[in-house]
Amino acid sequence: MRWVALTAVAPVAWGANYFVTHEFLPADHPLYGAALRALPAGLVLLALCRRRPHGAWWGRSAVLGLLNVSVFFFLVFTASQLLPTSVASTVMAVSPLIMMLAAWPLVAERPSVAHLAGAVIGLGGVCLMLLGGADGISVPGVLASAAAVLVSSVGHVLAKRWNTGTAGAAVLASTAWQLTAGGLLLLPVAVAVEGAPPAMSPSALLAFCYVGLVATALAFAVWFAGLRRLPAGTVGLIGLLNPVTGVLLGTAVAGEALTGRQLCGLALVLGGVALGRPPGRRPADKPPGPGVRHRRQQGPAVPAG
């Protein structure tokens, strides 16, 4: 429960990030928005861990930085500007289901029939929500949000796979490498495509502080720590707090309204994720006694991170 609670910090911060991005960040500079979110956060974590990539982690950091940072941040920034907060975050509700499916071939965590049924119900709920006819739904915004779900699900499962076993890196270090690599990949593209950096108002500077330090540095560190210690399906279900936070902020703070059909779609998403949750521990699955536990622990140690 401690790791579940700690991991939950990430989707709550990300859910609030939709509102902050939509309301306070410059809408016409998505590449700079993504780069300024990633690079400062990566450099802060790099200064804290004081470790450089080693061996295969040079290439892994580049791949994870491209998927989890460069492409993902750009798509999230675009979706946050084109869609209402509640809609953008609700589309992301399918990410737990996509993570379950991605974990099957990548880390051999096979989804059960309940998982697959939950995926079908959840995806149906998202389709119902998008067909609700509410104002402000942009097709490019929906496509950007859906692409962000796919990219991040694959990237997060890859991070879990590469951080398992003795070859894994410390969580803080691997997070710093991903964010720094992703920011360095984004920066020259932003300069080439968008020209000079956008002018920053005081509110935009404060928003970037939240986006970089809380919704990125802190959130990604606890998220990847949870991925190392919990099943991908469990972490994906915790990610449901992302759309819940976005919907609550969008309706309570931004004054957005959801139609009845969209609320029914969100309810289907919640039901699908609840149906696909990992089963509870049965009596036969109780932990072994102290002596058995001691014997089973002999073998390769998993880095604590």
In short:
The protein has 305 residues and is mainly alpha-helical.
From the structure above, extract its key features.
305 residues; mainly alpha; single chain
| Count of alpha and pi helical runs | 13
Which range does the strand content fall in?
Answer: under 5%
- Described by the principal axes of the CA atoms, the overall outline is globular
Radius of gyration: 19 Å
Question: Structural class of the helices, strands and pairings?
Answer: mainly alpha
Overall pLDDT level: 80
Query: Which stretches of 5+ consecutive residues score pLDDT under 50?
Result: 282-287, 289-305
Order of H and E elements: HHHHHHHHHHHHH
Please count the beta strands (DSSP E, at least 2 residues each): 0
End-to-end separation: 18 Å
Quick one: biggest sheet?
A: none
Q: Provide the helix percentage.
A: over 70%
